[in-house]
Amino acid sequence: MKTPRLNRKLVLESPMRDSDGAGGYVETWHPLGTLWAQVTARTGKEAAQSGAPISATSYRIVVRGAPFGALDRPKPEQRFREGARYYLVQAVADEDPDGRYITCFATEEVVV
Q: Which residues are CB-contacts of 73 (< 8 A; sequence separation ≥ 6)?
């Protein structure tokens, strides 16, 4: 296995439901920490969502390994933020048998 080049600084964020004061909730994103990552584009497609065209690109994001249950171990439904870009984590898998690296499969959607 080739050692990943962790050259992108990403913020791992988790969704939280906060009360809106009227019996409902507002979903907000709370930062959990900063991780260095290797980000590789995989495939892309154009689709329509609520009548607006969007560009959806899937990415393979590799970060350093972390034990199960650790706050800095990404999970599905969390996201990575890089400036104004957001990568929604779809799935997570160990990159190698020793658990030194974790692979996250993520999607970025942009309105075109």
A: 65, 66, 67, 92, 102
